[in-house]
Amino acid sequence: MTAQAPQIIADLFALSSCTAIVTGGTGGLGLTMTIALAEAGANITSIEVPGDPVSSVLREKVESLGRAYSKYECDVKDSAQLRAVFKKVWEDAEGGKAETPLPNILLNCAGINRRGPAESLSDEEIDEVFAVNQKALFVCCQEFAKGLLSRSLPGKLINIASTAGFIGPTTISAYAATKGAVIQMTRAFSTEWAGKGIQVNCICPGYFWTEMTKQYAEDPQYKDFNDYILSRCPTGRWGMPDDLRGAVIFLASRASQYVSGQAVVVDGGLLAK
């Protein structure tokens, strides 16, 4: 075994030769992480729901950084449609039809939640949460890995799970079940693909302030819940989207070449308490 020469630290975290496929990149946390990848040098290939109102915001920010941007519209709940989009992403990049080069990073941010007592969730709510958070993510991982393996390319695969995948929170049982599955899928995929040059990891955010959750932090009617979060988290605050920037750059870059199958928890110490 020959020791590799050490790299300059800044180069370890640089993504200037990379292209990232991103699902859910226009969401509260997804938008921040996608822009972070672009700031580190990555081109962005965004898979979005048709007519996403934040699409132009993401494009403008990525292109303002001097990065290439390609968009593909898709309902991720439709597996056949999702597989077709991935096939087109690979074909367009390889044939020079896309703004972005061949991808070597996948960031799976697409996810939804449906709240309610476990005994009250409808079939429609259960099916939708599982379709987006679990099945779609599985298909994305499959199609990304197939594209890399068939071309003998290395890559970085980053899933977004949650601390809800470790604990048993109330009123979000379907969400928690799918996020636990994401953690286990990450480990299983890593076992199969790490030896082939594909590192597979996931990020597990704790309680984060976004447009979807800010009501729980700001609305007086949720004061008890907000007080619980602040007392439960040793840092004494909600996470902010920027708190995820470092984790996603680490897992997308050469700095994590020997890291695979891991659930990187970003929760202000919540699980440790």
TrEMBL record:
Keywords noted in UniProt: NADP, Oxidoreductase
One Pfam family from the record: adh_short_C2
InterPro entries: NAD(P)-bd_dom_sf (IPR036291), Sc_DH/Rdtase_CS (IPR020904), SDR_fam (IPR002347)
The keyword Oxidoreductase appears for this protein: yes
Top-rank taxon: Eukaryota
Leader sequence segment: none
Family indicated by similarity: Belongs to the short-chain dehydrogenases/reductases (SDR) family.
Protein name: 2-deoxy-D-gluconate 3-dehydrogenase
Gene source species: Oleoguttula mirabilis
Source taxonomy: Eukaryota, Fungi, Dikarya, Ascomycota, Pezizomycotina
